[in-house]
Design a protein that fits this description.
This protein has 67 residues and is mainly α. It has one domain: Orthogonal Bundle (434 Repressor (Amino-terminal Domain)). Helix content is 60%, strand content 0%.
């Protein structure tokens, strides 16, 4: 699983506020998604995945072996 915070860091250390502006949402939403990725709705998952060019499985931690 790759977190939104990790993706922001790899993307020129983008702030939550900058990402929120690019996605048309609020900084509070980005913060919530970072702490609980499953709180995102399908539309926002798609926006995040397209923006960072990653799969939804990697954002949501699907397909990973359970410990």
């Amino acid at each position: 699983m790759i977190t939104i915070a990790e993706l922001r860091a790899k993307h020129n250390k983008m702030s939550q506020r900058e990402l929120a502006e690019k996605l048309g949402t609020t900084q509070a939403s980005i913060s919530m998604w970072e702490s609980n990725p499953l709180s995102m709705n399908a539309v926002n998952i798609i926006k995040i995945c397209k923006f960072f060019s990653v799969s939804s499985d990697s954002i949501l931690g699907l397909g990973e072996a359970k410990s």
